[in-house]
Amino acid sequence: MEKQKNIGNPYKKIDITEDIDLQNIIKKYKIKPETNSDTSFWHVGHECFKFKSKIKDLFFLRGNFERSLENQLFKQASNAGMETIFSTKIKIKNNKILLDNKKIDSEIIIGADGADSIVTKYCFPNEKIKIIEGYGQSYTDLNIPVGETHVFFEQNIMPGGYVYTGRTQTLGTIVIGGRNRPDIKYFNKIKKSNFKINKFIGKRRGTEIWGKGIISNIKKRVYGNMILVGDAARVADPLFLYGVRPALISGDYAVKTIIEHLENGKNLEQYDTLLKNKLIQDYYLSKVARNTLEKTNQKDIEFIIKNLDYIDKTIGLDGISEKPKDVIKTIMLLFVKSPYSTTKLGYKVIQSLFEAL
Q: 204 falls in which pLDDT band (50, 70, 90)?
């Protein structure tokens, strides 16, 4: 049941996500990203760090058109026998779906209805959330190479925010995200103050896009016969609003769980276990990063970016957050270089760790 008139994100845009744990899923569901890249640029003030990663970024087109990620998955599901009802008005009562006030008998209900999920609200009415919003514009192209990503931090203009840019052969997207309700005013202010972003765009006129991420306190993603997937499951990255990777992984886990339940009588709650072993840990670390970003100022970010090349050459940045020993080594390296800045930043990280619990 689809609440919109057709399949696809209402905004034509690029979604960029890391390919960690996605290769088997991409093969299994025959998904084709537009392009991929291993190079990104991280900017703050006059500092810029070029990062060549072992982990690739995948570029997916989103929206209601032929090659979009949504249409790729929709076609396969339809060919497999899925029936779709569009423009639906849905209510949930007593763990049953009401479609136009008519009860639909459902053994399992999958809530994949986004950040504003009615299924999530029904399952967890006392959920406490923090909203991270995104605003941006899409263009037919940008003045950057295909497959290149740039991340900018402008704490003086938008504290706790960022600017993310990327481009494929047919589309370029620039997004700003943060807690301060980013909009066209912030966008134009950043564009005016940042000559690099202004150069990327040139005189082009873009199409507006919007997005939303949720930081949530829910501990489970299964409620009775209901399973939450993607943004509805609160597994999208709270830092940069990455949503594709957690959506695909949680969707694949939901498929496995439901098959096991229907064929072998396994409990649906094994879905929570699968998520906990993979996505929930990533989500927690991103919550810490999000909380830390909101506490930092421009000087803190400059200190980090300035030392990323040194850390990458000494320890390696790929997967560093998953290795506690490497995190400790990083702190020690930074402390040797600048005890005051490291201590100041470390205090903010510790605060963020406790807030994320």
A: very high
What is the pLDDT at residue 323? 67
| Residue 35 near residue 169 (C-beta atoms within 8 A) | yes
Query: In whole angstroms, what is the distance from residue 243 CA to residue 313 CA?
Result: 30
231: three-class secondary structure by DSSP: helix
**Rounded CA gap, 320 and 49, in Å?**
17
- Dihedral sign computed on CA atoms, order 282, 287, 115, 257: positive
Question: Which of 237, 57, 232 is CA-nearest to residue 162?
Answer: 237
Coil, helix or strand for 247? helix
Question: Where in the chain do CATH 3.50.50.60 domains reside?
Answer: 13-124+217-285
Report the top-level CATH class of 131-214: alpha beta
Q: Which CATH number fits domain 13-124+217-285: 3.50.50.60, 3.40.50.300, 3.40.47.10, 3.10.180.10?
A: 3.50.50.60
Task: Give the residue range(s) of CATH 3.30.9.10 domains in the chain.
Answer: 131-214
Residue with tokens 């072992």: 54
pLDDT the model gives residue 324: 62
| Burial readout 158-184 (b: 16 or more C-beta within 10 A, e: otherwise) | bbbbbbbbbbbeebbbbbbbbbeebee
Give pLDDT, residue 320: 72
pLDDT averaged over every residue in the chain: 91
Tell me if 69 sits within 8 A of 77, measured CB to CB.
no
**Model pTM above 0.85:** yes
